[in-house]
Amino acid sequence: MPHTPPSRTVEILSDARYVQAESPRWDGRDGSLAWIDMATGALHRGRIEQGRVVPETAVVVGAQIGAPIPLAQRGAGWAVGVDRRVVHVSDDGVVTPLTDDIAGPGDYMNDGGGDPFGRFWVGSQSMPRDPHCTLWSLGPDGVPIARLGGVTVSNGLAFDRTGSTLYYIDTLPHRSIEAFDVAPDGDLSNRRTVCRVSGGNPDGMAIDRDGMLWVAVWDAAEVRRYSPEGELVETIALPAKRPTAVALVDTLLVITTASIGLAEPGDADGALLGVRVEVGGSPAFPWGGPSPLSDAGRAAEEAIL
């Protein structure tokens, strides 16, 4: 039966407590960490030093922030799913739209991530819950393409290192991890269920160098490691009831958590947590498009117009 090894120690990494921290990203350009607070619409950035998260910047991007992804070039900023669109956030906090509104009225962007080909995949969620939302990819050309419809709560996603397999969580109603074959042009096929997730809601997800899937399980106070075949390999109990997402900063598993909706939040609820694991991960795949503030970005915008 999967269990928490005695050597696992879960640490609180942040002094701050967030209402709904989500979407941690290890930035391969400079080794920094990014995350969001969904409740405040803010993109946070900082560094991990001596086992602690040291916050550096915070930018309010919109009312309903979803997922960030770094651009490829150092200093080029971030692409962020927010409200009903994708925007660019420069390192000095300038917010510029990358797309028009693509999510439906009343819906908003949620989790997302990159693939090895420079595409930014981001999905929407609905309130009230209804399966009419969409998972999009935004290519380096800045054109959004609807890849999957009938989504209710688009959540964690991760690609294998070749980009030929997408692991995906649409949290409701089935509470499962799914997999798709991915064609070179991004088309999805061969949808299948990897496993059902019991005892809570599967939320954010990351993949390690062995191809194993780490999943934050909301309301279960756990993160779990699954094999690509759906075997539950390990469960790590947490001091926070509502883990939201995970990122592997090499062998440090960083876990964002939420305090939202808890009548009596504990000390770890809303904190960024960390635990050392044997198999590490890689930095977040970047978006391959240009910053709209660069010469290339302005030229691309003029070509579209």
Number of helices: 1
Residue fraction in strands: over 45%
Helix/strand-derived category reads mainly beta
CATH superfamily: TolB, C-terminal domain
- Looking at CATH, which topology would you report? Neuraminidase
Largest sheet, strands/sense/barrel: 4 strands, antiparallel
CATH architecture descriptor? 6 Propeller
Distance between the termini: 58 Å
* Radius of gyration (Å): 18 Å
- The top-level CATH class is Mainly Beta
Shape: globular
Helix content: under 10%
* Total domain modules: 1
**What is the ordering of alpha helices and beta strands?**
EEEEEEEEEEEEEEEEEEEEEEEEH
| Strands, total number | 24
Side by side, the strands of the main sheet go 1-24-23-22
On the 0 to 100 scale, the average pLDDT is 94
Key terms for this structure?
305 residues, mainly beta, Neuraminidase, four-stranded antiparallel sheet, 1 helix, 3% helix, globular
How does this structure look, described?
The protein has 305 residues and is mainly β. The protein has a single domain, classed as TolB, C-terminal domain (Neuraminidase, 6 Propeller). The chain is built from one helix and 24 strands. A hairpin with a 5-residue loop joins β8 and β9. The longest helix is centred in the last third of the chain and has 10 residues. It is globular and about 45 Å long.
